[in-house]
Design brief:
Elements: H1 29-40
């Protein structure tokens, strides 16, 4: 089977259009600004594991 030698073009994570080198990884400054607004508006969040208080060493264990 012959493999396609065409490179897959990277897509904008906001709208899915082909990216432009000037605005990489986005297709335009508009999409870059929308992404930044999503970060500022806390739409994107980095997950954090809740720490269980019972697993933490207490003063009584010392």
């Amino acid at each position: 089977m012959a493999r396609s030698t065409r490179k897959r073009l990277p897509r904008c994570p906001i709208c899915g259009a082909v990216t432009v080198r000037e605005h990489h990884p986005f297709c335009s400054s508009r999409c870059a600004d929308l992404d930044l607004a999503n970060w500022f508006g806390e739409v994107y969040r980095v997950p954090a594991a809740e720490q269980d208080d019972s697993a933490a060493p207490s003063e009584e264990d010392s």
